[in-house]
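Reviewer comment 2.1 asked that we show a complete input and output for one of the modelled complexes. We chose the uridine-5'-diphosphate case, as it is the one discussed in the main text.
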Amino acid sequence: MSTPIKILSVFGTRPEAIKFFPLVHALERDERFDSRVCVSGQHRGMLDQVLEIANIVPDHDLDLMQPDQTLDALTANLLTGIGKVLDKEKPDWVMVQGDTATAMSGALAAYYRKIPVAHVEAGLRSGNIHHPWPEEVNRKIVGSFAALHFAPTETAANALKREAIDPAGIHVTGNTVIDALHWITAQIEQKPELATNLADLETRFSGKRIIGVTSHRRENFGGGMEAIADAIRRIAARDDVAMIFPVHLNPNVRKVMNAELEGLDNVALIEPLDYPHFARLLDICTLMLTDSGGVQEEAPALGKPVLVMRETTERPEGVEAGTAKLVGTDADMIVAECNRLLDDQAAYEAMSQSHNPFGDGQAVGRIVEALAEN
Ligand code: UD1
Ligand code: UDP
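Response of the prediction step:
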């Protein structure tokens, strides 16, 4: 048998870990590959929650998260830290996912060593370098020199082609987040005890419709976060709804949300949920109010309408399919759209059709075969 292809997967935040774990599982099982994992530790607690449930033990853990880290210090530490791992491992490929500082720096460190880069979730574009910030530029940097681009949808593949990227390197695979969602759903079916910690809240809010909330985007810090908090307070004044809001560990989010929302009867501000419990929240909610990227992909797969608290989205597929709606960060708009879904059955039903524009749960298999062929 020929020498296995050595792939170093580099990731560091919660969403990257969720979208990477099914791929790492597949590479580990496949004799054609020698799979290594480097986590940057850009996130700590929220990364570890995923590593634990997915049973992934990294070969390298740079553990470099600092409280309230700046983008420049984070990026500098990532670049030098990942570079050292590359010098030691000398992989045939470096694989990164999405658009975080870890993805951009991991790819750049590989490029500096002339190691080819495979980019998972390639080709997402909002067309606005300030929304989402800094992710739009991070993913464009990776896309500009990656050798393999795993685009989740045709829309993403077309965006890459418009940037004159060689079509031979572009593969439409679906998004691995759907593979991850299928895996976690099967795990919960086998072991329901993985996702029972919301039971007390479910009892407390029984008879009310649950709205799941997440928020963390850097471009929303300050005024945007204040407006989101204001909208949540106004929606929670209704006696027929309750909001469950696992608050991101970024201090810029927590400061505002704790100050504005703590102690409200219909709002549960809780710690970040591990992935099985977040899947449970998606299951029990009537709708999601979010500025997250990943949640925009997961909720439509489960037939849950998503109100996206952003000015633009690089995931237009959900909006086009009618399962997601952009509501920006204007409090009046968020409240109005939320009330519309709660009060207008036809509007709700139009958005809650289970639809999955982001993949069929088989993205990992396609990515693995493309890697094997190159
Ligand atoms: C990062 C990514 C963003 C991604 C998001 C997913 C960048 C620039 N940003 O944003 O693209 O959408 O993750 O959640 O790559 N913290 C903890 N514990 C954790 C995680 C974060 O305490 O487990 C706190 C720390 O104080 C840390 C801060 O949050 O300094 C910010 O973390 P960082 O990864 O820099 O930014 P995010 O806003 O999480
Ligand atoms: N998620 C989670 N627990 C939470 C909130 C989110 O496991 O409390 C998961 C969610 O299922 C999705 C991912 O985290 O897969 C989204 O991460 P985040 O919103 O932090 O980042 P983004 O997707 O916006 O980059």
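The chain has two domains: 5-175+359-373, 196-352. We note this here for comparison with the apo prediction described in Section 3.2.
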